[in-house]
Design goal:
This protein is α/β, with parallel strands linked by helices. Helices cover 37% and strands 18% of the residues. An 8-stranded mixed sheet has the order 4-3-5-2-6-7-1-8, sandwiched between helices. Strands 9-16-13-10-12-11 form a 6-stranded parallel sheet, with helices on both faces. It has a 5-stranded mixed β-barrel with strand order 19-20-21-23-22. It is an enzyme of class 3 (hydrolase).
Length: 848
């Protein structure tokens, strides 16, 4: 083979390094011609030599330079797929699917050979040579095959996105690669990034002792003129529409790419633009592109991926118009609400939020009158692009538009770096993205729209300069860009609470998470807090092992493994794990979903001076008290109110009365739809992941029985044992001053200062002696600071030994002296004398 190579007229230095193997690939001529235009093709030799000589290589290159589609092909041709797999990870599912299809097509290979694997889906076979997968999938594989023995190369693509899984993979592979080398079974690691900012990978001695070589791929980039808006507009969706109308009507040909934040916004814009510049098949010759005629009908497609709730709300709007003031709300039938079973598609599993947009509910026609005078008659070929779109529909953006049409793609940040759309000349950038923000205290997450980073904004602008000079229209001012945009996005790992990360890594057998070589390590104290909390939950346990040399380290318990199976924070995971009995799971799912969404119940601030507001608020509060029911129901407290509110809202929604219902009862409608989405997502994941559970079999969810309500209180306690408060007994209040200050006050187990029940809590009047709370927050009013507990549930102190054992100090276990017990079955009954928490509250004697 070497002889064959030497016969070629190559420079000697190159010849000697040419790989011994060359696997032939039979490509179509058009594909080959397109490949040759890609900047990365010019670098093939250098890239392959560097890979041959190094265990770890970083490739940094502009989006669209050909990294994702070409590097796997280079490796295949060099024989890396002959005995083992070439693996490529992507942070996004979209990219894994679409890139595997593209590479198969370019190489004239079947999908049996170039395949993909994402969570719950894939087409990998035993013939697979090149395997695209999400980073989460590879991380899971490491759990069962630590050295990744099936792979000859692992490519971590889109490393600049700094997804948590990719970051962990880099850390793990930095150790796996040398191990494989030692065993004489080398593994190559290639890290690919769309930005040149790779110091976190190269300049981190803990990660790579010798910094790996960085190969830069220069892409042809034409100048892009940036146009800032004078003022930053709030309604960027409408503004994007206006801008696009202008571009299409006034500017020379060239595709338009619009960046907005989510699927809903994308669909809304697509609908409006199609309406404004309709593409009529009959105007054009049908023959232009055979595949297009099929696609044309989809130009009129209804949004098949739309959220049902929205339709219900639209109906409400319509009926409201018709009936004006005579709508009468039917009596809410709390017993007959149902768990939604209809939208069970994977739709809700990804980050693309389907939240309701105000603008979606508006009458479409009003802004169609805008700017009609100067509007062109030329049709616009409008296509949506977001991660949950079927891959078939996604691929339409790569085909040229029908003749006489201008291409316009409306996208989420998927098109920022993962997919490159050809022939874009104009970019309209909202400057926003949807991110998941985590509450540091509760670990609760919420989707919010924020400004992107400067780096992202520049990436987006860059999409306009790939074929010729382009223009980028930013829907925000240069002042906002300079002052409010962060230079780079913070790596995910530093934004998220690390509880689940810690648990997952421990599940993988990484005992000393603190020593793990993260590219950018999470906060040290955060890690410590997480470990402590996981121990409290019983997910981790200290032990001494031989491997640890007698050192104490924490390991995952069987309960911890069960908790980690649920896609929620470990607190909630524990609640779900304990609900696998008494048919409690549907309730816990609902409660976890409701507790994960902020501000479900509207509250008027305690300081509100406005009488009307106050009376509205007290009307809502009294309603909630009736919802809370009596007896055990009531003791379940605020979470029970949420449970019932969700059920009743579902029912009202099914009657098309959701909006009135929310208004009447002081619920935030968006929160209700978010809860629904989370419930569907959790239900799906549990059905798929937990054996023997099928939550959709019995979609009807009656209000819980008394017994179930009691279990639910215990389940809440099991997840929040560190958030227990005890009412300060009257005899502990020494003087008048104390009594004035601390009457009705509680003391938390983890904090000195007294706290009060929030006035909106249904347990505010009832004042149970022991409670768990979801959160504490501080309110400042002039000089006085007060702390309030929110989301309160009453508990029995006897439960603490069972449900929060890690926080109990057992003082003595005594045999029960009473013969009444001893006589029974000849067994000896014992009771436990224990105290709880740091303050050492005495617990009642508990029988065991
Ligand atoms: P990078 O990973 O460096 O961003 P890619 O390998 O993704 O670059 O893309 C290289 C080129 O391949 C781009 O010009 C892109 O438009 C093109 N391309 C990718 N997927 C497809 C597809 N499915 N159909 C047509 N062209 C595609
Ligand atoms: Mg790529």
């Amino acid at each position: 083979q070497t002889e064959k190579n030497e016969s070629k007229p190559l420079k000697p230095s190159v010849v000697s390094r040419k790989p011994a193997v060359y696997v032939h690939v039979d490509r179509d001529a058009t594909i080959q011609a397109a490949r040759l235009k890609l900047p990365i093709l010019a670098e093939e030799q250098q890239i392959m030599e560097t890979i041959a000589e190094n265990q770890i290589v970083i490739i940094a290159g502009e989006t669209g330079s050909g990294k994702t589609t070409q590097v796997p092909q280079f490796l295949y041709e060099a024989g890396y797929a002959q005995n083992k797999l070439i693996g490529i990870t992507e942070p996004r599912r979209v990219a894994a699917i679409s890139m595997s299809k593209r590479v198969a097509e370019e190489m004239n290979l079947s999908e049996r050979e170039v395949s993909y694997l994402i969570r719950f889906e894939g087409n990998v076979t035993e013939d697979t040579k090149i395997k695209f997968m999400t980073d989460g999938v590879l991380l899971k594989e490491i759990e069962s095959d630590f050295l990744l023995n099936r792979y000859s190369v692992v490519i971590l693509d889109e490393a600049h996105e700094r997804s948590v899984y990719t970051d962990i993979l880099i850390g793990l592979l930095s150790r796996i690669v040398p191990l494989r080398h030692k065993k004489g079974n080398p593994l190559k690691l290639i890290v690919m990034s769309a930005t040149l900012r790779v110091e976190d990978f190269t300049g981190n001695a803990k990660l790579f002792k010798i910094p790996p070589p960085v190969l830069k791929v220069e892409a042809r980039q034409y100048p892009v003129t940036i146009h800032f808006q004078k003022h930053t507009v709030e309604d960027y969706v409408k503004e994007a529409y206006r801008k696009t109308v202008k571009i299409h009507s006034k500017l020379p040909e060239g595709g338009v790419l619009i960046f907005v934040t989510g699927q809903q916004e994308v669909n809304y814009l697509v609908r409006k633009l199609r309406k404004a510049f309709p593409y009529k098949e009959s105007l054009n010759s049908r023959k232009t592109e055979p595949t297009q005629s099929k696609a044309t009908t989809t130009a009129e497609d209804k949004d098949d991926d739309e959220f049902d709730m929205k339709r219900a709300i639209k109906n409400v709007k319509r009926s409201k118009k018709k009936l004006a003031s005579q709508v009468i709300l039917p009596k809410i039938n709390l017993d007959s609400y149902k768990l939604p079973s209809e939208d069970t598609d994977a739709d809700l599993l990804e980050n693309d939020d389907c939240r309701l947009e105000e603008s979606d509910l508006e009458n479409d026609d009003d802004d169609l009158t805008m700017e009609t005078e100067q509007r062109t008659k030329q049709p616009l070929w409008v296509l949506p692009l977001y991660s949950l779109l079927s891959s078939e529909k996604q691929r339409r953006v790569f085909a040229p538009p029908p003749e006489g049409c201008r291409l316009c793609v409306v996208s989420t940040n998927v098109a920022e770096t993962s997919l490159t759309i050809p022939n874009i000349k104009y970019v309209v950038d909202s400057g926003r993205q949807k991110t998941r923000l985590y509450d540091k205290v509760t670990g609760v997450s919420a989707f919010v729209v924020t400004f992107t980073s400067k780096a992202s904004a520049d990436q987006r602008a860059g999409r306009a300069g790939r074929v010729s000079a382009g223009h980028c229209y930013r829907l925000y001012s240069s002042a906002v860009f300079n002052d409010e945009f962060e230079p780079f996005a913070v790596p995910d790992i530093q934004k998220k609470p690390v509880d689940d990360l810690m648990l997952q890594m421990k599940c993988m057998g990484i005992d000393k998470v603190i020593n793990f070589p993260f590219p950018s390590p999470p906060d040290f104290t955060q890690l410590e807090v997480a470990e402590k909390r996981l121990k409290m939950l019983g997910a981790l346990e200290d032990c001494k092992t031989k491997e640890s040399g007698g050192q104490v380290i924490s390991k995952v318990t069987p309960l911890g493994h069960a908790i980690s199976a649920f896609p929620v924070s470990p607190r909630f995971g524990k609640m779900l794990a304990l609900s696998h009995q008494q048919n409690l799971l549907p309730y816990t799912v609902c409660m976890v979903a409701a507790l994960s969404v902020q501000e479900v119940l509207l509250e008027v601030s305690l300081n509100d001076e406005n009488d009307a507001n106050r009376s509205q608020s007290s009307k809502w509060s009294s309603k909630r008290r009736t919802w809370a029911g009596s007896g055990n129901y009531q003791l379940l407290g605020d979470p029970m109110v949420l449970l019932r509110a969700v059920g009743a809202a579902e029912f009202a929604g099914s009657q098309g009365k959701l909006e009135q219902f929310c208004e009447e009862n002081g619920l935030r409608m968006k929160a209700i739809s978010e809860i629904r989405k989370l419930r569907v997502q959790l239900t799906n994941e549990i059905n798929l992941n937990i054996p023997d559970v099928n939550l959709s079999v019995d979609p009807k969810m009656e209000p819980p029985t008394d017994l179930q309500a009691k279990f639910l209180r215990q389940i809440l306690l099991s997840g929040m044992g560190d958030q227990v408060a005890r009412k300060i007994p009257d005899d502990e209040l020494k003087d008048k001053e104390d009594k004035r200050k601390f009457k009705h006050a509680y003391q938390c187990s983890e904090m000195e200062d007294p706290v009060l029940a929030h006035s909106a809590s249904v347990l505010k009047k009832k004042q149970p002696d022991w409670v768990v709370y979801q959160e504490i927050y501080q309110l400042e009013n002039g000089d006085t600071k007060k702390m309030f507990m929110r989301g309160i549930t009453a508990i029995e102190p006897e439960w603490l030994l069972t449900y929060a054992p890690k926080l109990c100090n057992i003082k003595a276990v005594k045999e029960d002296p009473s013969p009444r017990y001893n006589a029974k079955d000849g067994k000896v009954y014992c009771y436990v004398e224990a105290s709880f928490g740091r303050s050492g509250w005495e617990l009642p004697l508990t029988e065991i």
